[in-house]
Amino acid sequence: MGEMNNNLIGGVWREADDVSENTNPSDVTDLIGLYARGGAQDVTDAAEAAEVAMPAWAGATPQLRADLLDRVAAEITRREDEIATMLACEEGKVLLEALGEVRRAAHVFRFFAGEALRLTGDALASVRPGVDVEVTREPLGIVGIITPWNFPIAIPAWKIAPALAYGNCVIFKPAEQTPGSAHILTQIIHEAGCPAGVFNLVMGRGSVVGEAMTTDPRISGISFTGSVQVGRQLAGACAANMKKLQLEMGGKNPVIVMDDADLETAVSVCLNGAFYQTGQRCTASSRLIVQSGIHDAFIAELSRQMQALKVGHALAEGMQIGPVAARSQLESNLYYVALAAEEGCDVLGGEQLTRDTEGYFQAPALFLGASNAMRSAREEIFGPCASVIRVDDFEEAVALANDTQFGLSSGICTTNLRYAREFKRRSAAGMVMLNLPTAGVDYHVPFGGRKASSFGSREQGSYAAEFYTSVKTAYTYAG
Ligand SMILES: NC(=O)C1=CN([C@@H]2O[C@H](COP(=O)(O)OP(=O)(O)OC[C@H]3O[C@@H](n4cnc5c(N)ncnc54)[C@H](O)[C@@H]3O)[C@@H](O)[C@H]2O)C=CC1
Ligand SMILES: O=C(O)CCC(=O)C(=O)O
């Protein structure tokens, strides 16, 4: 068990008066460690340190920032097995998925090391004689980064790396359920030579630490990933305090399966999208909209493969689906399984499972015979559950796919180029997948959605500069 009872504030590790327990969802008797539970004063002190550090960091050469991010990437890679094991233990994703996530985080740091050197501006002619106009991008300032438990290292990476690359100072508040990966990432950034105050870690309760971030006047912006409910609260608080805000929240992502789809492809797309990572992805495929002609064959094969998935301890050899991340999440998933049955679905799977260890195991579930009007098909569950909705034709499928409060990711399985092209154009989602799962995105292109899924500018890729920089327009009259 590790003693990680400290936050990093102004380049110094500071012990907290209070701690939270980090337990393993594959085995609740396994206490991974005790982690600091910081408070509002820690945010105030981190903001003060960041304010002192800000001018030098904002003025540092892009080479210096690129070198730092490169060193972070190299160290994540060197320690990938250790970090993946921590991630699998505290979040519950199987080791192979955890390793994939750690590698993704290293790629993100490497990508933004390059982006630090590529930040561009514009030079324009003025409408007035003898005047030049330049448009440049400067760091936004001190940014608060609030992250969820489901990608404990990749999501922090894709917020922290661009923040640092573009010259911002950071106050990082990870989810209380997964402080271990955040603590290791902080050690790595600190030991890679990040100047004191440029990067600060404040672990603690969302309501306390998050609240302090929204009211501190020195913090210029907040980037958040998590629930719609907390996102909405942050939107109100940031508007009241004039802070820039970027939100990534939920999804109820549809996959349309057309009669002409390649059956094998469609089954593998939906199996992966709906159930991998225990369905705990905002991009998970939770609504399968299936045309009548392929419906029965598709369901027969998908059910067969779903029931063959190996569910168990995240570190056990050959496991494909780990536990649900927390007791409260498991209880919520089981509530939705019961609700789907009450609403008239034929529910396949979804029961709680017992294994050798005491963990939050649940069988993946299909809600057959669902309609898009059911609550179980409209509300985000965030578990290994997918509603199956039968449709007659393409038009009905597209209408149902877009009939949701969310708009993060969507997909279609088809071999018809016309359907693929039409869906790409008409889908009301930020990301559209053709013959690919709705989840599992590239790290170098924009990520984000529409409607209740996202707010503010896109994350990832060069589009991240929109949030982490502030535009300046300079006019020069040379006489
Ligand atoms: N979009 C996504 O990727 C995610 C969506 N969710 C959704 O949210 C549901 C609940 O999961 P939670 O972990 O409880 O999400 P959450 O939204 O409560 O937590 C996300 C982060 O926000 C922080 N937070 C909580 N209250 C806050 C506040 N008042 N001000 C500022 N920060 C605050 C948390 O400490 C954590 O770091 C899930 O069942 C799922 O539906 C959860 C995690 C990720
Ligand atoms: O699907 C992915 O690759 C990313 C999903 C994600 O960011 C999330 O679930 O929060």
Automatic annotation (TrEMBL):
The active site is at residue 248. It holds the Pfam family Aldedh. Keywords: Oxidoreductase. SUPFAM superfamilies: ALDH-like. One of its GO terms (molecular function) is oxidoreductase activity, acting on the aldehyde or oxo group of donors, NAD or NADP as acceptor. Residues 14-473 form the Aldehyde dehydrogenase domain. InterPro entries: Ald_DH/histidinol_DH (IPR016161), Ald_DH_C (IPR016163), Ald_DH_CS_CYS (IPR016160), Ald_DH_CS_GLU (IPR029510), Ald_DH_N (IPR016162), Aldehyde_DH_dom (IPR015590), Aldehyde_DH_Superfamily (IPR050740). It comes from the Bacteria. The keyword Oxidoreductase applies. The keyword Cytoplasm does not apply. Belongs to the aldehyde dehydrogenase family. This is Aldehyde dehydrogenase family protein. It comes from Vreelandella boliviensis LC1. The lineage of its organism: Bacteria, Pseudomonadati, Pseudomonadota, Gammaproteobacteria, Oceanospirillales.
